[in-house]
């Protein structure tokens, strides 16, 4: 069975609006089941963590189930290695502070020029605090891909951490992170993956990838604003956690700071079950991980077709310049997030025009400033449209027609 976006659109209340939500690269819409999970928590289970009374026990059970769902999504059997937080940025800053306690002058950290700044500045700041050196991996501007040879040259026995995104939030490039993980481990370095932009499009597998840490955000994969961090158990148990006293010695409480957003965490579990439901509707009868794998396989195939239609439509408009991979034979190297510029209109003018036609898109640098600087598009930035599995091809056509109106 193939995936049809119309099979799920009715589950998203926001999509009833007469608009094309092509702003998914900045955050997805949520299905009714996520909304219901959040409200049900508040109605029936609202309590703080760790109490001996009924609603506290129920609240903890909801959180435990959400953590198990996240483990299935991430591809680990150890749900104790799954941590929740306010967002990916906050979690990354906290983790970087802990990891950096092991760094010293002369140590090196590698980041890339294709990443969201949430996977750059935390490591730059942490390195500065410890006197370590930061090295930036360059890109190939012509197709917005990482220069893997430059990475190899900058990787050394002094490298302590490699921070790389799985997919670019700005131009959709899928980075060769499995190869980078292998090379980093051979050099004795740890690897932190930013999977925020990967998570709604492709199946994650921290076990197969052998990454040391991974962070993602539920609001990108059809859930609420909650950050999710995975770390190998031996590392989370060994590193110093910055916590108020008393600091629990068991995972994950050892790392999670303050009172969590329990209702939103309930929504995270519901979002993952929504995705697993797609796999079930496509005939998968196995466990949740198997259903997720089936769902993401179908989503990837559909999004590749929709992305090809998007790239073809944009390429048909003479004044539009696409930034990133455009070769139809290389669509497997990108997700359907596409950035472009217009030769006669500013990015703000373009998105305002699109809004007037009921098409929602973003403009600017999307916190990928090193990339926009390398492309020479600052300060105007780019226009970004991001397809998700609930976007129809008719919405792609609506975007192209609207852009074609611009002189």
Entry summary:
The chain has two domains: 5-30 and 297-404, Aspartate Aminotransferase, domain 1; 34-272, Aspartate Aminotransferase, domain 2, CATH 3.40.640.10. The protein has 13 helices and 15 strands.
Structural features:
407 residues, Aspartate Aminotransferase, domain 1, Aspartate Aminotransferase, domain 2, four-stranded antiparallel beta sheet, 39% helix
Account of the protein in words:
- The protein is of the alpha/beta class.
- It folds into two domains: 5-30 and 297-404, Aspartate Aminotransferase, domain 1 (Alpha-Beta Complex); 34-272, Type I PLP-dependent aspartate aminotransferase-like (Major domain) (Aspartate Aminotransferase, domain 2, 3-Layer(aba) Sandwich).
- 39% of the residues lie in helices and 15% in strands.
- It contains 13 helices and 15 strands.
- The chain has helices at 32-44, 54-74, 88-99, 121-130, 148-154, 177-186, 206-209, 233-238, 262-281, 288-315, 347-356, 369-375, 393-404; strands spanning 20-21, 82-85, 108-112, 133-137, 139-140, 145-146, 159-165, 190-194, 213-217, 227-231, 320-323, 337-342, 359-360, 362-364, 382-386.
- The strands form four sheets. Strands 2-10-9-8-7-3-4 form a seven-stranded mixed sheet, with helices on both faces.
- Helix 1 packs antiparallel against helix 9, helix 2 crosses helix 9 and helix 9 (262-281) crosses helix 10 (288-315).
- It starts with 19 loop residues before the first strand and ends with a helix.
- The model has no long low-confidence stretch (mean pLDDT 97).
């Amino acid at each position: 069975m193939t995936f049809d976006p119309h099979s799920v659109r009715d589950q998203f209340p926001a999509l009833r609006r007469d608009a094309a939500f092509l702003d998914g690269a900045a955050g997805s819409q949520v299905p009714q089941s996520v909304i219901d999970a959040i409200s049900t928590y508040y109605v029936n289970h609202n309590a703080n963590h760790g109490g001996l009374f009924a609603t506290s026990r129920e609240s903890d059970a909801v959180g435990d189930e959400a953590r198990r769902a996240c483990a299935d999504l991430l591809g680990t059997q150890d749900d104790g290695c799954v941590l929740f937080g306010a967002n990916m940025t906050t979690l990354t800053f906290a983790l970087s502070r802990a990891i950096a306690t092991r760094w010293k002058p002369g140590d090196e950290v590698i980041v890339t020029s294709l990443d969201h700044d949430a996977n750059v500045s935390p490591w730059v700041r942490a390195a500065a605090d410890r006197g370590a050196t930061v090295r930036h991996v360059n890109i190939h501007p012509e197709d917005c891909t990482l220069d893997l040879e430059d990475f190899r040259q900058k990787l050394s026995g002094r490298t302590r951490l490699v921070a790389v995104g799985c997919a670019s939030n700005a131009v959709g490039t899928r980075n060769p992170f499995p190869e980078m993980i292998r090379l980093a481990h051979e050099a004795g370095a740890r690897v932190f993956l930013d999977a925020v932009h990967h998570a709604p499009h492709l199946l994650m597998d921290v076990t197969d990838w052998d990454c040391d840490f991974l962070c993602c955000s539920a609001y990108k994969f059809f859930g609420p604003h909650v950050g999710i961090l995975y770390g190998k158990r031996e590392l989370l148990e060994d590193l110093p956690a910055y916590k108020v006293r008393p600091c629990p010695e068991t995972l994950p409480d050892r790392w999670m700071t303050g009172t969590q957003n329990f209702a939103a965490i309930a929504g995270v579990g519901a979002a993952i079950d929504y995705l697993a439901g797609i796999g079930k509707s496509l005939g998968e009868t196995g466990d949740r991980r198997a259903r997720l794998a089936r769902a993401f396989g179908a989503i990837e195939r559909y999004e590749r077709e929709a992305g090809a239609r998007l790239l073809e439509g944009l390429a048909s408009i003479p004044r539009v310049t696409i930034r990133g991979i455009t070769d139809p034979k290389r669509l497997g190297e990108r997700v359907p997030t596409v950035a472009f510029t217009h030769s006669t209109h500013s990015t703000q003018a373009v998105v305002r025009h699109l809004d007037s036609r009921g098409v929602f898109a973003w403009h600017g640098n999307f916190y990928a400033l090193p990339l926009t600087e390398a492309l020479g598009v600052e300060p105007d930035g780019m226009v970004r449209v991001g397809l998700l599995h609930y976007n129809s091809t008719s919405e792609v056509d609506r975007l192209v027609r609207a852009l074609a109106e611009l002189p």
